[in-house]
From TrEMBL:
Similarity annotation: Belongs to the UPF0702 family.
Broad class of where this protein is predominantly found: membrane
This protein's UniProt keywords: Cell membrane, Membrane, Transmembrane, Transmembrane helix
Name of the protein described by the UniProt record: YetF domain-containing protein
Membrane topology: Multi-pass membrane protein
Length: 187
């Protein structure tokens, strides 16, 4: 029978546990943001980070590496709190979101490879072409734009109903848009 009085109390001060969890989460978030996200697959980098840190913090309490389960609980709570706080801040303040959240990057733009993006993401032409083939596209010129999404997957926007190399025309249904000046109603 476990001795509950030794399992639940904290072995370290709460402030130290909060500091450790905060510094670890923020430091790894910054490193992952700098390194990139191409290898993440279906998860966002922050999601992956939270999962790994929670698993590590919880396992320390489960395997006995930490002194008590309370230590692991404080660390898990700290990690989740920072994850929620940063997501809420990114939602509330768009300028912060630009720094914190990854944005899509185009390895293909108007039927041409974007070598700068490919260099930044360490992608070779063969990898881009492989992704195009997975989307059923064999000719690079048929791609209006491709994006490496924040979760690491590549989305592709092909040209529609145009010959290769042609610039598509806007639909006829758009017609001519009415001019609007300040204080004037549009009929």
């Amino acid at each position: 029978m476990p001795d509950w009085s030794e399992l639940l109390p904290l072995s370290l001060p709460v402030g130290e546990l909060l500091s450790r969890g905060t510094l670890t989460f923020l430091g790894l978030t910054l490193l992952l943001r700098i390194v990139g996200r191409r290898e993440a697959g279906g998860l966002g980098m922050t999601d992956l980070l939270v999962i790994v840190l929670i698993a590590d913090a919880a396992s320390a309490g489960l395997t006995g590496d930490a002194q008590t389960l309370g230590d692991g609980a404080v660390l898990v709570g700290t990690i989740l709190a920072w994850s929620l706080l940063l997501d809420a801040a990114a939602y509330r303040w768009p300028r912060f979101a630009k720094l914190y959240k990854a944005r899509p990057k185009p390895p293909v733009d108007r039927g041409r490879l974007n070598r700068r993006t490919m260099r930044r993401e360490f992608m070779e032409e063969a990898e881009v072409m492989s992704q195009l083939r997975l989307h059923g596209i064999e000719d690079l010129r048929k791609v209006r734009r491709a994006h490496i999404e924040p979760n690491g997957l590549i989305s592709i926007i092909p040209y529609e109903d145009t010959e290769i190399g042609e610039t598509p025309e806007p639909p006829a249904s758009w017609g001519r848009l009415p001019r609007v000046s300040t204080g004037q109603a549009v009929n």
